[in-house]
Amino acid sequence: MSDITSLVSRLATLGFADSPVEHAPVDTVEQWAEALSSTAGLPAKFTLTKTLIFKPKQPKSEPMAPVVVIAKHDSPTNSKSIGNELKLKDLRFASDDVLRDVFQTAKGSVSPFALAQVSQESIAHVRVVVDKALLSESSAAPIAFHPLDSSRTVFISVATLQAFLKSVDGLVHLTEMDFVADAAAGTKVEKKTTAAAATTEPKDEGGAAGMTKPGIEVSKDVDFPTWYKQVLTRSDMLEYYNVSGCYIVRPLAYFVWQQIQEFVDAGIRAMGVKNCYFPMFVSKEVLDREKDHIEGFAPEVAWVTRAGSTELAEPLAIRPTSETVMYPYFAKWIRSHRDLPLKINQWCSVVRWEFKNPQPFLRTREFLWQEGHCAHMTKNEAMVEVRDILTLYRRVYEELLAVPVIEGEKSEKEKFAGGVATTTVEGFIPTTGRGIQGGTSHYLGQNFSKMFEIMVEDPEATGSVRPKHLVHQTSWGLSTRTIGVMVMIHGDDKGLVMPPRVSDTQVVIVPCGLTVKHSDEDRRVVVDACLNVEARLRAIGVRAESDLRQNVTPGDKYNHWELRGVPVRLEVGPKDLEQSSVLSVRRDTHAKAPLSLSGLESSVQLLLATIQSDMLIKARKTLDERVKIVLSWDTFVPTLDDKCLVLIPWCERIECEEQIKVRSSRAAQGDEPEDEKAPSMGAKSLCLPYKQPTNPPLVEGETKCVQCGENAKRYALFGRSY
Ligand code: 87F
C-alpha cells in the first residue's frame, strides 16, 4: 500500500495543504457521512464522492484497460452506459487482484489517488471518467475523498482534483460523463441500442463468433445462480435481452412451452373451455374499477403514455392479468342462465413491472401464460372446476416436466385478494431449499360479478319482479415459470436434463468409433446405419436426430447434446454394427446399455418412458426427504436452514403468519443474509396441503400451533420461497 505522507506532499505541490482528517474506518457512504458528522475541523459544506474501478471484457492478447470512475456519491453510475460511452464491452467491478496488482490498493480504499501508483506501462491504457456533476461543484463546496484508506478523508477543490489528474504521468484517456442526464435518458438509450449488440446480462456471453460455446463452468451446488444462467444461455434455451427483466425464449425452451400448451389445451377443451383473445390494453377507468385489490399491485402496472411524440389523452395500462379487461364483456354476454357456464381461456403474455431481482422464467417483467376465466350459476360448479384445473396443473408438472408438486389451498394472507379462495400447486427447488408457486386456480365467488354486474335472472323465481342472481366465477393461470422450475430441478453440472416428453430432441444418434484406419466405405455404412435408425424412430413418433457433422469429434458432440439435455444418445460404430446393436446412453443417470437393432423401436420407447418416470421418482424422493414435520418452534428455523420445507400444525391466523415470517428471517437469527439479493428472507406459508399428514394426527382442540400455541386447525406447509 502507498505512503500517505508522499501523497499529501504531492497534493501540497498541487496547491493543497491541509492534512486529511481521521475517523473510524467506513465501508459505505452512509457510514462515511455518519463518521464525518462527529469529526471536528471539517469545511462547512462538502460533497462526498465515490471512486469505482471497472474492468472491461477484452481479448487476452490486448493490454488491460481498467476504467476509473470518479463521481458524486449519489450519481447513477451505470456500468453499461459507461461501457457504451467508452466503447468497451461488459464492464465489471475490477477484482481484488487488479486493484492490488495495477493500482496497489484494495477494496474500501479506492480513490483517484491510486492513479498515482499505476506503472508507466499500464497507465496509458487506463480510462478515467469524471462525473460532470462533480465538476460543476467547482464554484461551490470542496469534494471529499479517502486518500488511499477509508479511515481518512481529504477535502480538495475540483481544481485540485483536475490538477492531480493532469499531473498523473502518462494518463491519456480522460472523459467527462453526465450520469444524471444519462440515467434520465435510460429508456431511450435502451430503445436505441440494437438487439444484437446489447444484453442486460453481460456476465455470460458464450463464445466469440466461430468458436464452440463452452459448457457449464460452475457447479450447481457451488454457485447456483451462475449455474442457472449458464445452463439456460449455453444450452440455447434463453438469451438475455437489452431490457432488464425481459428475456428471449429460444426454440428449445419454446418447444417445452408448446408441449405444455398442447396438454393444457386438450385438458381444458375437454372441460368445455374455449380459447379467445382480448386486447392487451386496459383504460385507466376500467382498471380502477378493480381498485381495491389492484392497490397492492399498482406499482407493477406498466403504462403507455405516448404515441410518437403525442401524449395520449388517456394513458393505457398493459394487462398484468385480464380480469378488468374481460369482465365488462362477461356482463354484456351473460344475460340469462342459458348463457352459463361461460368458460374462456386465452394464451398471451402479461406485463408486471417487478422491481425485485429478475430471474429468467421465474420472475420476468413480461411472461407467457394462459389465463382461464369462467362464470357459473352455482358455487359448487365453480369449486369443482377450480379443483379440476388444479389437477390439470399438477399433471403438467408431474407427467410432462417430471416435477412433483404439493396441492393445497393458500392462507388468507397469501391468497389472491380479489377472490374468495386460492388453490395452488407448490414446487420445491432442492438446491436452495426454497418453495415455488407453480400455478394457481381461484374461486372468485361473487366479488367480481358484484363489481362488474355480471348477473342473470334467477331461473327459479316466478312472478313479475325477477330477482337477479350474481354469477360465481373462477380464474386460473399457468406460466412459463414452469420451464424455470423444470431446469432448476433436473439440471446437473453438465447442463440441462430434459424429461423426454418435453424434449425437442429425444434421441440423438452419433456415429463413432471411426478412425483414420477406416475406409470411406466403413464410414458410409455407419452413416447409413445412423440414418436408418433415425428414420425407424421417427416413423414411430420418436423425435430422433442424427448428428453427422464431420468437423466435430464424437466427444464434442456428446458434450453438445448433454448440455442441451437430450434424454438418450445412441452411439453407432462399426463394432456395434457387427453385433447388430447400438449403444444407448441415458442423460439422467449416464447408464449405458447396448440395444439390439431388431426391436429397436420398442426398446427406445421403453427407455424414454423409463427415463420420464425415473426422473419424477427421483425428484419426488428428494421432495419427500426435504419436507419435514416440525412439532416445535425450536426446530422450525434450523430445519429451514437445512434447506427443507416444514409442515407444522398451524392456527391459520394472519398475525401468526406475520410473526413466523419475522421470527424466521435471518436478521432475527442474528445471521448475515445469505446474499444481498435475498436479504434475511423469512418463511411464508406455501399452502395448506390437501393431503394432510396423519402421523402424528392433528387433533382439533388438542394440537397446538407450533408458533403461537393457539389451537391448530390444519397442518400447513411453510418455507422460504421464490
Ligand atoms: C400484478 C399487477 C396487477 C397478480 C398482478 O392468478 C394485478 C395483478 O391481479 C393481479 N399480479 N394479480 C392476480 C392475478 C389473479 C389471477 N388472474 C387470472 C391469476 C390467474 C389468472
TrEMBL record:
State the reactions this protein catalyses.
tRNA(Pro) + L-proline + ATP = L-prolyl-tRNA(Pro) + AMP + diphosphate
Q: Name one GO biological process term.
A: prolyl-tRNA aminoacylation
UniProt keyword annotation of Cell division present: no
Is Ribosomal protein given among the entry's keywords?
no
Q: Name one GO cellular component term.
A: cytoplasm
Gene Ontology molecular functions: aminoacyl-tRNA deacylase activity; ATP binding; proline-tRNA ligase activity
Enzyme Commission designation: 6.1.1.15
Q: Which UniProt keywords apply?
A: Aminoacyl-tRNA synthetase, ATP-binding, Ligase, Nucleotide-binding, Protein biosynthesis
Report residue spans for region: Disordered.
Answer: 191-214
Q: Which Gene3D superfamilies match?
A: Anticodon-binding domain, Bira Bifunctional Protein, Domain 2, C-terminal domain of ProRS, YbaK/aminoacyl-tRNA synthetase-associated domain
- Domain named Aminoacyl-transfer RNA synthetases class-II family profile is located at 256-499
Which top EC class is given?
A: ligase
Family named by the database record = Belongs to the class-II aminoacyl-tRNA synthetase family.
Q: What is this protein called?
A: proline--tRNA ligase
